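Structure first, sequence second, as always.
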């Protein structure tokens, strides 16, 4: 054994297992360089694509991406890696699938450090043997020939993404023998995906079945003379991309749309009714392929937002003449929603949200304008919260990031529901605080009236000035929470005090009127009779035994 160390990656969602394996194995002694421990398959795929590991040990039961699905994808980005799968299931079906994926070993838990060390020693021997074979040039060429389809697919994926220089493009086109002339040929991308994806192995099965059906449909249906349909590949987002080529841009676009509609019809008849096809713009040469791909991807994303299957063309998405600037200015949804909230009209704010979502569903738009408008509306809601000093946590519960969360939503129904939910939380919080404020002010006002009712100059204006609130606001909340007007409440307090004085003192009517804040004794007498149904004399007599009691209007002698 020489000093060469093979890179090793560990994938397990349980930290104690990752740390236990990492710390219990003498990696260098066994000929390995421990390159990293990942908590899930997606992180491991990213690491593997970057460092191209020699060996990977993965748990089979993990969230997001199980061990078998991870292994399938791993072999696409790091085809030379040897995979060890560790599982708590002694299940033949799992082992069979692992064998189909050409997994190096299938280990059933529990496994001791000694057993794992023995497995790694065996793996090291196998890697040494593979390394010796790789040094054999003939064998290297043979392996390269076997890898050509995968390398070709990865090249096409990078080509449509615009990640290659012109010289590299020309060299790779020659190397793979691709029919991609740089001049006198137009190009167009069609991207196919599912409106609703299934997960894990089910998605991979769906994608493979879809690809087989597409290839069959393309061969059976054929294409217009001069239009080639043989470049079908899987992009980095696991979508099938068809690169059409031939003729001029106008003709190719027309034929591309026809081909997309035919494919959609055939796939629907075969059971794939949830398939959506994004149709990009035609490009005059290879330099324009990335734009065709990006416009097809935008069309696909917009269709997903609308929850629609079938064919969606980019130029139909944005409108042939682009977005009208006057309409764009008139549809400043963020300003409309913010203004409605400032005016206390949450109903109109909610209506604006619904109208905005409906405009995305029914009218042309670009993904850039969609994301911009949604972001501005969210910013308007946050701005209103700041204006009213509403804690953001009351509307956007931590640790969520509302901008990231809403950008990740996959359809317009979810977008409308999320924004409406934010609006409802803001409205509830504001109404609760307004109710609390109003009730406090009503209580303060009643307390003030109880202690200052004898002031003949007491008025609605002077009371509101004392409470620092407007007369119209106070009149409304007093009626709402106490069911009386200011005059009614003050009259009740004063007359109840008058009744008390008639019961407990021998004060005359004009003295009582002055005592409780009336400037006019006659007006007091009229108010008292209206309130009690009796004159002051009748009221005092009813309490003290009738005519034996003196008249409160006549001074004692």
């Amino acid at each position: 054994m020489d000093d060469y160390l093979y890179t090793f990656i560990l994938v397990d969602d349980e930290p104690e297992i990752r740390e236990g394996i990492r710390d219990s194995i003498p990696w260098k002694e066994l000929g390995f360089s421990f390159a990293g421990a990942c908590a899930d398959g997606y992180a491991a795929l990213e690491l593997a694509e970057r460092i191209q590991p020699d060996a990977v040990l993965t748990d089979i039961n993990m969230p997001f991406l199980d061990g078998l699905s991870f292994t399938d994808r791993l072999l696409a980005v790091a085809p030379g890696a040897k995979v060890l799968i560790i599982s708590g299931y002694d299940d033949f079906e799992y082992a069979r699938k692992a064998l189909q994926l050409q997994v190096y070993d299938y280990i059933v838990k529990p496994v001791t450090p000694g057993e794992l060390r023995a497995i790694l020693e065996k793996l090291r021997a196998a890697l040494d043997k593979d390394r010796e074979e790789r040094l054999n040039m003939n064998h290297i060429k043979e392996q390269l020939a076997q890898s050509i389809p995968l390398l070709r697919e990865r090249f096409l994926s990078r080509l449509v993404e615009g990640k290659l220089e012109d010289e590299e493009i020309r060299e790779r086109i020659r190397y793979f023998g691709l029919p991609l002339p740089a001049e006198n040929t137009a190009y167009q991308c069609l991207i196919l995906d599912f409106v609703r994806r299934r997960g894990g192995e089910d998605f991979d099965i769906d994608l493979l079945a879809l690809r087989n059906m597409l290839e069959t449909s393309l061969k059976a249906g054929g294409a217009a003379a001069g239009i080639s349909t043989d470049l079908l590949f899987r992009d980095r987002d696991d979508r099938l991309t068809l690169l059409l080529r031939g003729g001029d841009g106008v003709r190719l676009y027309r034929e591309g749309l026809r081909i997309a509609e035919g494919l959609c019809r055939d796939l629907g008849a075969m059971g794939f009714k949830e398939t959506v096809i994004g149709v990009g713009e035609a490009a005059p040469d290879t330099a324009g392929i990335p734009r065709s791909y990006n416009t097809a991807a935008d069309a696909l994303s917009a269709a997903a937002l609308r929850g629609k299957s079938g064919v969606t063309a980019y130029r139909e998405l944005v409108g042939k003449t682009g977005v009208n600037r006057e309409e764009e200015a008139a549809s400043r949804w963020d300003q409309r929603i913010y203004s409605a909230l400032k005016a206390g009209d949450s109903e109109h704010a909610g209506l604006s949200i619904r109208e905005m979502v409906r405009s995305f569903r029914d009218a042309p738009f670009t993904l850039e304008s969609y994301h911009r408008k949604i972001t501005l509306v969210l910013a308007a809601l946050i701005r209103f919260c700041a204006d009213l000093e509403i804690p953001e946590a009351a509307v956007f519960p931590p640790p969520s990031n509302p901008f990231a969360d809403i950008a990740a939503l996959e359809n317009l129904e979810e977008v409308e529901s999320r924004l409406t939910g934010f609006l409802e939380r803001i409205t509830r919080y504001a109404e609760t605080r307004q109710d609390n404020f109003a009730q406090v002010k009503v209580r303060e006002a009643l307390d003030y009236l109880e202690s200052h009712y004898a002031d003949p100059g007491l008025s609605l204006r002077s009371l509101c000035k004392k409470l620092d609130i407007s007369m119209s606001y106070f009149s409304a909340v007093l009626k709402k929470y106490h069911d009386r007007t200011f005059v009614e409440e003050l009259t009740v307090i004063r007359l109840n005090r008058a009744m008390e004085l008639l019961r407990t003192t021998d004060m005359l009517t004009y003295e009582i009127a002055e005592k409780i804040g009336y400037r006019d004794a006659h007006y007091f007498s009229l108010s008292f009779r209206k309130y009690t149904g009796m004159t002051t004399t009748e009221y005092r007599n009813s309490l003290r035994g009738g005519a034996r009691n003196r008249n409160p209007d006549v001074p004692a002698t």
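Margin note: The first strand starts at residue 6 and ends at 11.
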